Amino acid sequence: MRLKPGALLRFYSLCGILMQGSQGQFPLTQNVTVVEGGTANLTCRVDQNDNTSLQWSNPAQQTLYFDDKKALRDNRIELVRASWHELSISVSDVSLSDEGQYTCSLFTMPVKTSKAFLTVLGVPEKPQITGFTSPVMEGERMQLTCKTSGSKPAADIRWFKNDKEVKDVKYLKEEDANRKTFTVSSTLDFLADRNDDGAVVSCRVDHESLNSTPQIAMQVLEIHYTPLVKIISSNSWPEEGQSIILTCESKGKPVPEPVLWTKDGGELPDPERMVVNGRVLSISFLNKTDNGTYRCEAKNPIGRNSTEYVLIVHDPNALAGQTGPDHALIGGIVAVVVFVTLCSIILLGRYLARHKGTYLTNEAKGAEDAPDADTAIINAEGSQVNAEEKKEYFI
What we know:
Order of helices and strands: HEEEEEEEEEEEEEEEEEEEEEEEEEHHHH
Structural class: alpha+beta
Helix content: 10-25%
Strand content: 35-45%
Shape: elongated
Largest sheet: 6 strands, mixed
Oligomer: single chain
Number of helices: 5
Radius of gyration: 56 Å
Number of strands: 25
Distance between the termini: 180 Å
């Protein structure tokens, strides 16, 4: 059929108007992220539309909806809204295979499209802790492993001991057989310690699909260890006639058997005054014979341990004497001072007496140059007559 020139001109004019009107039309979409098993909503909007059809197609380029008409037989796909300005559909029970690029097409001349990428998050399985055997002996090496599968992207694993995070751990990530999800594991390696008995070790899995609610696996530790022994005294300064109570505190796992009390390596010498009641040793009417080393020993199937307490019974009278001045010591000091003073006086008297005689002798006439007292007397006026009478004798 051949068109007339006037009809052909009108046809071109109409096409030009349609093309000019469609210049401002363009579909708008947004990327969507959904958790596996959830529902994804795909929306395509057009601000200006002159009754042009909209269409959604999947990553395999299969048409899902053309305007309000369903094209693919999939009960999971439903129409949410269809108008000249919007085409919205939903995909329920989303699986990992639904992930990909979806296309919204606006049938203008030429056709205009917009892409929306659907991301499906793989939810990690609940973690499990392996490698723990109960009980564990103190000093043994423990290796606890926490493992979870099915996460996409790979989940993060963190360890805690009594709510305190443990940083020094090993982390391993492996791709699952479907080549979409990951299996992650982490190992906590440490030496068993008695302080860890009863501690709660937890493995926490964090992932964006969990909506800030991590998955947690917990393990309570049971550590067996030898007893720890300590003696507590009821009297810090025991005196004769008083009493004392010695308590033997023993902590171990399994619980220690009844403790054993000894004195100086042997049995308690006076069972009438030294009474043992469980872990308590009571000694009444203390005296000096009770002085010595008391030992408390505790044992369990793991081993045994002991500690000692040295008992010194004090004399209350000696203690009271020490509170006042020491009169004997003061008396001794006074006696020494008096004795030294008397000796000093005697020596000083003899010294003065000797020098007095020398002065009298030197006063004799002609005796200035006498070397000693006898010569001075002899050389004195009156020659040597009565020399013996003038001679002085010194004691």
